[in-house]
């Protein structure tokens, strides 16, 4: 029952978690993408009754992997919050609690398309904000998938919410979120508990790892 | 004549109007007028449309004439205020309804204003109506609900004298029908003396149909009136020249094209009903190929065609410029305009009431005979027609199953009322319980619905910041503009699958096809649609652009939901027919023509008697096949097949695959199954049926799909605003995602329970399965081991094969199998002979 898989990309080692996270041992950094925290609060604000719970569930899965890896750094590859109205009192309190629990962890956010709409975050949150293309050595971090820029060997990002669908005959046997490595770019699955998926069709030479329940498998 | 008109009584005026049409009033029409005059409400039913419209429409008119004897005061410039609301199930019918209601008004010079108000009406007209409604208003269930959101209209609505619901059988048993019941309950509250009249086809459960329409009110005086019934019905089958002893579905159908063309030739106008839209496309093409000179004189009509195309066909029928129209149930409905000489039914009618209704489309004139020609698509369907004739003769017509208190429709209605002036809980509860569908609504369920619309759910903490309905003291109401606008835009219960417009490059729209079909096509693929061969150019902006193509089609669009199951009444009649045949009694042309087939079945196996269940076991190519023949309809068989497979594989490790049709089911496995033992271990048991069914049918996946509709009706998902391609991107979430989120964080949400219940009741027909299993359990099981596939088993075998091979290979394979079996059948002793 592999709940993690170790992979090697462009000479860097990573560990993929079934919780939709990537751990980067060399940097002691945990990477996640597309949390869309507070999305259900936005829905309620717009008159659609979606129960609370998914924001806490997303934060809990990040917390659990942070605990297991003991990572000292956390980087969110964009779309931390869903929209401006996602920052409801209830959501803020939960995020406050998260940052309190992990005060020792250095947190950073790469700005994604949703973050732009969210605007300024509470100053009390210890969050360093970077633009797309932020470099850590030869690895670039971003939100939208892109080719590795000049000099970068690898590009880590999110945005797509990638997933693969298996079929048996005409029937779909299920849709599974996946990590997708294509042309030097590793796309992370969305970690948010209330997010949809986007079906991808891996091309030749791509590598894909899909998540079925609490297991990760190479396709 | 004016002098004359001045002095005549309303009854004389009506007689004169009928005389001008060349008729005189039927007795049932007079009964309706009298009952109306006396203040009754009621339901008028008959198999065909003869005179029902005038029966209910002239009630309020004659009453008004009686009350307004002085004609000098009749002033068309000052029409009376709202008197009649006329509800039509299809907004496309509103125009036709309007003209057929207008004709007596004109003839009798009644100064009423008659107008429609539907989703198609102009905004300026609707705005004017908000100030003053016409004397008689034609509307749809959706538009009526919408009117209830306008507080300003309530005073006018409270003056209504009568609500008339047309084609009630079309609404009954659907969520639109429930929506209508709730709106009627509201109108009864606004105007307790309101008369409610309905017009319906004859059904097996007319009392329920009446109670659903009129509500639960024991003081209310109601009538159930049978309409014109002496109309003669002539049902005949087009019997193929040669009956295959090994029939298969969809096969002999188009072989019969020449015979059907001959029938069409003999009369002036024909409606050809097929069961699916793809069948209509195929038949239209085949008829044209048979008679190229009919181009422009025959047409195609189904629900996916563009409305302008459909209207053109309808007017062609009315004017007599069309000789034949190939259609689906899309033409089952309609005002008396489609009076044709002959109706042709292709393939199983699936129900006796349905067959009768369709036959009634011909010979509309009083006294004229209805003629229906039945074209079987496989030989065994001839038994169905024989059975349907028996059912019609003995009056065993289908009951329309009703939906019991769906909470999604109720939630929508409660918001509607909260917007339209607000309510107090006990008052609205009383009103809602006066409707048939919600008579057993419990206090807890009611409280849940209130909590749902007020704060999202019954938990106090799960839905912070959510507001839809507000509470002021003991009054529930809505003041938020955005909530009001969103609700009005999404009122209704019709949820269609995502579909895409099909357009020519120049922009002409041909109709729409389900997205799931189009997404499987590649540019250049040719397909039949709207009676033309088209090839896909590209898909862009939610439209499929096509051009005319030549050659042969790669595919015909298949629409979902095209597969109707044989009704339980017709299934029972079918079992009786088979039992009769078992006793050597072949009554009627249909049964006699099947003599060879039935005899062969009896020679190689048996024909089951009424209290017998036939099971045939055959081994071929190393695979074991078990055929069971409960004769309960496809849907029940699908459920039974999954159930049996699940129960067998629990005791025996094997893989089972299956196929079903309306007569039986086949289970195939690589291992021999010990059926006797399986039966002893409770294969047919009704114990834990629901649990086993849910396990075996992947009920969760089905519930997810059902939840899509429920979520939409209850206002959880907004399909968006008209004219806007995409809804606001930050509010996108699929219904699957909603379902998962609710299951995880609010598992007691009653809408989740409803979706599971609807899967069991509506999709799996669990009640029918229960009855079927009870019957099977009491039957004597007759296990046969024929050496070869029998005539009853053959169509199932073909369906089984169909899953694996392409249609071309299938045709060849089936032809080869048929030839072999025919050869064997001609050798008298093959039943016991060992194959050499």
SSE layout:
The complex is a heterodimer of chains A (219) and B (836).
Chain A: E1 4-9, E2 12-17, E3 21-24, E4 29-32, H1 39-45, H2 54-69, E5 73-76, H3 89-101, E6 106-110, H4 113-118, E7 127-130, E8 134-136, E9 139-141, E10 154-157, E11 162-168, E12 171-182, E13 185-187, E14 198-199, E15 207-212, E16 215-218
Chain B: H1 2-7, H2 10-21, H3 27-37, E1 41-45, H4 52-67, E2 84-87, H5 94-107, E3 114-117, H6 123-131, E4 136-139, H7 141-148, H8 154-157, E5 162-165, H9 168-171, H10 175-190, E6 195-200, H11 206-214, E7 222-226, E8 233-237, H12 257-266, E9 270-273, H13 277-290, E10 298-301, H14 307-319, E11 324-327, E12 342-346, H15 352-359, E13 370-375, H16 381-394, H17 407-419, E14 423-424, H18 425-433, H19 443-455, E15 470-472, E16 475-477, H20 481-489, E17 499-504, E18 509-514, H21 515-518, E19 526-529, E20 532-540, E21 543-548, H22 568-582, H23 588-593, H24 595-604, E22 612-620, E23 623-629, H25 634-651, E24 657-660, E25 665-669, H26 675-680, H27 689-696, H28 699-714, H29 735-745, H30 750-763, H31 766-778, E26 780-784, H32 794-802, H33 807-826
Parallel strand pairs in B: 1-6, 1-7, 2-4, 2-5, 3-4, 5-6, 8-13, 9-11, 9-12, 10-11, 12-13, 17-21, 22-26
Antiparallel strand pairs in B: 14-16, 15-16, 17-18, 19-20, 20-21, 22-23, 23-25, 24-25
Helix pairs in contact in B: 3-4, 7-10, 12-13, 15-16, 16-22, 17-19, 17-28, 25-27, 25-31, 28-29, 28-30
